[in-house]
């Protein structure tokens, strides 16, 4: 089945609708990439670990983006555990294990961030997980001018 559109006005209307849809898609993709890059740069300032992005979800016409992924880090060595916090049993068992036999495992921790955008660009960036990165309303921003 073939649909024929005759006349100039309907063709212009179809092109206008298509270009609007494509522009919205492009804006959503652009915002997703921007949020992912911002997530990587902000994470790099707080951790030397590796950040792996697994998904970027875009909603509300590209004005809200949630980026999800994992933090990859190595299991800490038992010899680096503070002796004061270790029980006598665990301290003895850790000392009994030769360091040469310890092979750290790569561990994973979920991470997520949210970006909101307005016509002028990025409006906000917030960590959603892990808890260590999330700022709550009870935690005031550090103010360097008070010192």
What does this structure look like?
This protein is an alpha+beta fold. The chain has a domain at 9-77 and 103-135: Nuclear Transport Factor 2, Chain: A (Roll). The chain contains two helices and four strands. The protein has helices at 8-46, 88-96; strands spanning 50-59, 64-74, 106-118, 121-129. A four-stranded antiparallel β-sheet has the order 1-2-3-4, covered by helices on one side. Strand 3 and strand 4 (121-129) form a beta hairpin. The chain is elongated, with a radius of gyration of 25 Å. The N and C termini lie far apart (75 Å).
Q: What's the SSE blueprint?
A:
Blueprint: H1 8-46, E1 50-59, E2 64-74, H2 88-96, E3 106-118, E4 121-129
Antiparallel strand pairs: 1-2, 2-3, 3-4
What is the averaged pLDDT score? 78
Ranges with pLDDT <50 over ≥5 residues? Answer: 84-93
Radius of gyration: 25 Å
Enter the CATH topology name of the domain at 9-77 and 103-135: Nuclear Transport Factor 2, Chain: A
Structural class: alpha+beta
List keywords for this structure.
single chain; 147 residues; alpha+beta; Nuclear Transport Factor 2, Chain: A; 2 helices
Question: How is this structure best summarized?
Answer:
The chain is an alpha+beta fold and 147 residues long.
């Amino acid at each position: 089945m073939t649909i024929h559109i005759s006349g100039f006005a309907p063709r212009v209307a179809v092109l206008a609708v298509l270009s609007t849809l494509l522009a919205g898609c492009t804006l959503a993709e652009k915002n997703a990439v921007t949020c992912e890059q911002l997530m990587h740069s902000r994470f790099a300032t707080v951790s030397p670990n590796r950040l792996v992005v697994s998904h970027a979800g875009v909603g509300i016409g590209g004005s809200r983006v949630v980026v999800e992924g994992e933090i990859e880090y190595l299991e800490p060595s038992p010899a680096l555990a503070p002796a004061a916090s270790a029980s006598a049993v665990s301290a003895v068992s850790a000392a009994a294990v030769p360091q040469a036999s310890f092979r750290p495992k790569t561990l994973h921790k979920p991470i997520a961030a949210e970006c909101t955008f307005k016509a002028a660009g990025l409006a906000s960036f917030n960590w959603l997980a892990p808890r260590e990165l999330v700022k709550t309303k009870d935690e005031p921003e550090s103010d360097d001018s008070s010192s």
